[in-house]
C-alpha cells in the first residue's frame, strides 16, 4: 500500500491575496519563491517548499491538501485507483510529480513526490522547561518579545464530510493511515462521528493525528494546524496577534485528544487556523480509544470551545 510521509500543504481560493499575505506573515509564515499576482505561496522554517497556498478567486473556498509520499512507486499505485489522475508533473514551484484525487465529497487531495526541498530557515532553539523534578535550564533565563512566532510545518488538517465512514475508508485505502482515536456522540454508544488518522511508519514516531474526519451537514475544512517551537512561541504570538487586531477564535488551551497546546484564529477570509505545540507522538503500536463527550470537554484547560465547535 502507498505510504504517506508528510502533510505537505493546504490550498485555498480567496479574493484578496495581499490581505492574506499580511495575516499569514503575522501568523508566522514566510513568502516562498514562485508566487505572482494570482497565487500566494507561504512556507515555514522546515524543508517543504511551501505549506500554505492561496489562489486568487472571486469567492473563498477550501480546495484541498497535498500529501507527500515515500516513493515514486507510490504515485503509480495511486494513479491505478479509480478516480485518480495519471502521474503528472506539478505546475507549482518546487516541481516534482503528482497524482490528483478527490474524496467522495469532491475535496481535492494531491499525492506528491520529488518536490525540491527548501533550505531550512534559521530559528532560535526551543526554551528548555524547568518542571518540579527535571530542571534542564541552568544559568539561562527565558526572554521573549511579543512578536510573530515562526511556523515550522503544517501538522494536520480537519475535514467536514457528508459520509464519515466512506471518507475514512477512502483515505485509509490510499494512504495507509491508522486510526488514533474516535469521537462518539456525547452520552451515547453510537458509531463514531469523528476519526483521528495518523501516518503508519512502523516503529518511527509520528504525530497523534495527521487529519481528523468529521461527519457534518456541510463539506469543507474545519481548520489547518501549524506547529511552532514551544509554549512561549504560542503565547507571545497570541499577544502579538491580539494587539495587531486579528480575530481570535478559541485559545489558548490544551487538547485532550492529542494533548496539543492550541490557539485558534480566523484568517481574513473566515478560515480557522491553528498554532500548536507539545502534541502526542506515537508509533504503529498505539491503539485507538473512544472519546464520549462534548466539544467543550475536548479541552483539558484554558479557553474551551463552544458546544457547536465541531459541527
From TrEMBL:
<dbReference type="Pfam" id="PF00903">
    <property type="entry name" value="Glyoxalase"/>
</dbReference>
<dbReference type="GO" id="GO:0016829">
    <property type="term" value="F:lyase activity"/>
</dbReference>
<keyword id="KW-0456">Lyase</keyword>
<dbReference type="InterPro" id="IPR004360">
    <property type="entry name" value="Glyas_Fos-R_dOase_dom"/>
</dbReference>
<dbReference type="InterPro" id="IPR037523">
    <property type="entry name" value="VOC_core"/>
</dbReference>
<keyword id="KW-0223">Dioxygenase</keyword>
<feature type="domain" description="VOC">
    <location>
        <begin position="153"/>
        <end position="278"/>
    </location>
</feature>
<keyword id="KW-0560">Oxidoreductase</keyword>
<protein>
    <submittedName>
        <fullName>Catechol 2,3-dioxygenase-like lactoylglutathione lyase family enzyme</fullName>
    </submittedName>
</protein>
<dbReference type="GO" id="GO:0051213">
    <property type="term" value="F:dioxygenase activity"/>
</dbReference>
<dbReference type="InterPro" id="IPR029068">
    <property type="entry name" value="Glyas_Bleomycin-R_OHBP_Dase"/>
</dbReference>
